[in-house]
Design a protein that fits this description.
89 residues; 0% strand
Length: 89
Amino acid sequence: MLKFNQQGIDGLTDHERIRYTFWQYAAQLRMQNQFNDYQMGFLDEDLYQSALHTAAERYDLWMELGITIEDPKFQAAIQSVRNPGAISE
């Protein structure tokens, strides 16, 4: 992660890029699970907001790495943090 922070995605070898992508994908899945837990009433508001804001911060990185967000509700929640003034449909 240090190498990525210092050199960006282009500074990683193919192997490092794959490992970093999988690490980020696993983090995204954990945040998706926290979103689902919150929707079912199993997670409190503070933890939910923390996970959601972290997901919003990492969104551009995930897109750069090719990590997609399959759940449209999770995607909308992330976008509501990224664009708080936008009107959702």
